[in-house]
Amino acid sequence: MTGPWMTLAITLAVQAMVSMALLTLPVMAPVVASALGVSAALVGVYVALVYAGAMAASLAAGAAVARFGAIRVSQAGLVLCAAGLALCAVPHAAASALGAVLIGLGYGPITPSSSHLLSKSTPAHRMSLVFSVKQTGVPLGGMLAGALVPSLMLLLGWQGALLAAAAANLVCAVIAQPLRAELDADRRTDKPMALGNLAQPIRLVLGHPALKMLAACSFVFSIAQLSLTTYLVTYLNEGLAYGLVAAGLALSLAQLGGVVGRILWGWVADRGMGARRMLALLAAVMALGSAATALLSPAQPQWLVLVVLVVFGASAIGWNGVYLAEVARQAPPGLAGVATGGTLAFTFFGVVLGPPVFGALSALFETYRAGYLALAVPTGLCCVALLRARPSAQATDGGR
Hints:
The chain is mainly alpha-helical. It folds into two domains: 1-182, Growth Hormone, Chain: A; 199-400, Growth Hormone, Chain: A (Up-down Bundle), CATH 1.20.1250.20. Helices cover 80% and strands 0% of the residues. It contains 17 helices and no strands. It has helices at 4-27, 29-36, 43-68, 70-88, 93-107, 110-121, 127-135, 137-176, 180-183, 200-206, 209-239, 244-273, 275-294, 302-316, 320-330, 336-365, 368-388. The chain starts with a helix and ends in a 12-residue tail after the last helix. Mean pLDDT is 85; it is low at 393-400.
């Protein structure tokens, strides 16, 4: 019998693999851009295409999980990511664009699938911690991409590195197969996969006040997260005169803060604070962290700059697990995957929209400080909204 820890282990592994797939090409962006004869700045378009595909796929995930099972849908996601990576190895910009969409279609269903599995196997009083541990697969995948892909590129070339990452995703899909019969036993083969099912997750979220508020907050939180990780190195390099190596180290430490934060916040939420109050606290820290980041100056000691960025990263990157656990709690029975898919559509929309708006705002004021300072407003409003929201009668004590 597959226990909760094995379920957590396989969902964590799948999450790490698809996250690595998403970041494999961006890690090699200057080299790939040179080979294709395009600007490395187009990596922003690549990431936007990935998340646009993910947003669409997340809406279909609930119905797909119900019909085919969460493990089968996860395997399909891994295969789509592998296909997308292989397509990106074709030396043409159009192939990379199509590959980005395929990777997004593979990435989008992974979190709804894992939420479906974990909501069944995890006791309510441990959900925040377990979901947070699973969500460490996102920065873990980023760390794997950063640590392995450059070395693979030197050894195999940029195309070989893409194919190696594709192979890793396929291996993970094969490893998951022995768990399929047991974990997908609740699938309903008569469940229709109609186009109208794409609207069900959105209708569920908009018809449920608690889910609607959580989705709105995730839209803002994802903007803060991607704005931090996308622009921090450039901000430190241009605004604070940090070298690229030092700026890259600062970003790594901010991401490490996110890894630690995802686990710590889940543990604290389950130990009595509750997910909603924990999210309100994280929103407040995001607001303060973004404002403090905007006020950094070259005259400040490096240790102080790093402390600010680690705290900012711990909140802006570390919120996901507590949030997903609360979505699963608030969802109607048996609809955790559908609710997660619906809320993730709003989350991914923030990822697609946020960084370009941040960049445009920073360009308008000719400083990235303006973008980080502006983030303090919506994150602060999320804190107020979460504190004022009344706990749903459907939520367990762990969610209040």
